[in-house]
Amino acid sequence: MDELMTQETVRLGRAALDHLPAQIARPAYKAEELTPGIVHIGTGNFHRAHQAWYLHRLMQQGLAHDWAIIGAGVRPGDAAMRERLMAQDCLTTLIELRPDGTSAEICGAMIGFVPVEPDNAALIAQMAAPEIRIVSLTVTEGGYFVNPATGVFDPDHPDVAHDAAHPATPRTAFGAIVAALRLRRDAGHGPFTVQSCDNLRGNGDVTRDAVIGLARLSDPALAEWIAAECTFPNAMVDCIVPATGPAELAAARAFGIEDAAPVTHENYRQWVIEDAFCAGRPDWDRVGATFTADVHSYETMKIRILNAGHQVLANAGELLGVETIAECMAHPEIAPFWRKVELNEIVPHVADVPGMTAADYVTLIESRFANPAIRDTTRRVAFDGSSRHAGFVLPILRDALQAGAPLDGLALVEALWARMCAGTREDGSEIAPNDPAWDSLQTVARAARTEPAAWLAQDDTYGDLAQSDRFAQAFDRWLRMIWQDGTTAALRTYADAG
């Protein structure tokens, strides 16, 4: 920690800003100068370190004061976050973790948080308010009701079916958005932009499909109005943001701040956005965001090299008991495996973007992953593999099959995931449940120990990939080797192959 830090702490809140240690950057604007323009659903660490930070930087310049954020959530766990944030006036301590030191600032772009309710009444009312012009979301990759095998909106999901049958009392974020848009249409308030900030290819298109698809189930005329009036910009978002635990709480205290929900983050951010906002937007490009019509190229580079690259590391790390991503990058077997998969099997399916080649991006990601100040756990990165492998890794596998390109390492990535889902590490210790579908995954993973084809028979994940002999045979070979000879032997065999 930097030597300027103190062990004396001040409880975070608007009234305490003037009493914080002098080295802590704080808002140059006052809460009473701000009015809401954005409702954000899913106020976890990533949102507060990314979208809220960009808005905060604008506000520091005296701009965008009519775009303040109202936080929201649709899950019972979001109520705990609301309680923590409201107790400190929705302020967040952002702690930047550089390899050579740390710094902290207070972000005040959020000014309220609606109550979290089973019927989402308060959220619907807030989004229906005419001053709200953007509703944004970070609800995780698995929260968009996409069938992983088909890649399209799943109208048969139980939560979707509930919202279609009870449109005034929805369970989901998308049901609440549809209900709010109905109120706005009926009141003549006009539409808002729905902006995904999740790591999904074509996240705006996916969001559009979810909102319009759900609306169509209960009110086809409303669905047509949404399709004609609302916008759903695609975007690529990037910043490594670890989960908050005791170490992060202690880091805030070391800066002299008692914060119940601090956020640590790396010293890198990127936000590439399609400029499609039906009701206006903040000028995020003034503080480093990029507006472009070609979001797809940027998101493909990031999702394939960084997000798929995370999955290359995390399952191997879990099996070998390597706690963090940085430690994986220092591991004598995991690191060479990662780099070979990236350069030989991922980069060939990634186009260059202005100012950055795919190979250079691998080097950038390598340095970011290796940052020892970022204690990003393999467990966090491995969470919800059923969504992340389907969204990040399997599209590359499909491209490799179509092109007749190498895929041995990608097949090994899938075999490592299957082995991890059996629920034990190589040292015999238990891997705690780490996926919404953990119980079913574990059952299949244990059956796949002797019949690897059982894993690929999960149609909702692999679809027709199991019909590819080249992939199925490689997967079979790797999974049998992992169970017989161990993860380290499999990694070495791959890395040493010509």
Automatic annotation (TrEMBL):
Keyword hit for Oxidoreductase: yes
Top-level taxon of the source organism: Bacteria
An example molecular function term from Gene Ontology annotations: oxidoreductase activity, acting on the CH-OH group of donors, NAD or NADP as acceptor
Residues of the Mannitol dehydrogenase C-terminal domain: 294-480
SUPFAM superfamilies registered for this protein in UniProt: 6-phosphogluconate dehydrogenase C-terminal domain-like, NAD(P)-binding Rossmann-fold domains
Keyword line: Oxidoreductase
Name this protein carries in UniProt: Mannitol dehydrogenase
Organism expressing this protein natively: Pseudoponticoccus marisrubri
